[in-house]
Amino acid sequence: MDGDGVEYIFYADPGGVAPIGNINRPETWTNDEDFQEPEYIRAGSDWVDEPIDLGSAEYGPGSKQWVSVRKKTSVEGDTPAWQAYSPPALWSGVGVDGVVNGYTISSNNATMLVTTDPTGKVSSFTDSNTYEVFHNGARVEYTSDPSQSSTHFMLSVGTISRSDGGVTTGITAAPASGGRIVVTLSNVPNLDNVSISVPVVIHLPDETTRNSKITVAGLAASEGGYAVSLYVSSSVVKTDYYE
Description:
The chain is mainly beta and 243 residues long. The chain has 2 domains: 1-94, no CATH class; 95-243, Sandwich (Immunoglobulin-like), CATH 2.60.40. The protein is built from no helices and 15 strands. The chain starts with 5 loop residues before the first strand and ends in an 11-residue tail after the last strand.
């Protein structure tokens, strides 16, 4: 997952509790004796070097994962040195399982890869995530036609936002055939360490709704650019995915 002059570390909690205390807050490790060593992680912390599989038996529904990033840079010709880790940012999660009025909803938990240029700009990116709906075990098909909404499910997208509060020009998301939400980034600047949130509403035939969220997380620029991942909830049921 690491790139040239960039290192990621990951933290997961089965209950979705964010990392607390200095031992699990990487941005406080800068003065540690071995901080300049490659792949440094403070001993005794719960951070690891690679993304964690939230679908494993140890985690599962309700669990969440965070990412922290550090970069090696030089100032005025000095020897390149590792800078402080970024504050933990939400990277991925698994929705809470359950059944409401006989409906269960899942997503394909797709990993979408996007590459930035050295300035943090994404020139062109398109990918999609698919939602599936079942009622009492039977598949409910997707439609974009409101006249079929009593027998099919529909999708809509809320207001897209950036974690830095910046403008979202060039970022779009829209429903598509097969129950997909297609996410597109076109000439979007200044995404260095910024996450993008795409709220998704699933409209069910019984006229109720469920909420989900697609997140592009961990974006950061480095020499040559590198790939990061986009995750969504793997199931969406009783409540919003992120409460």
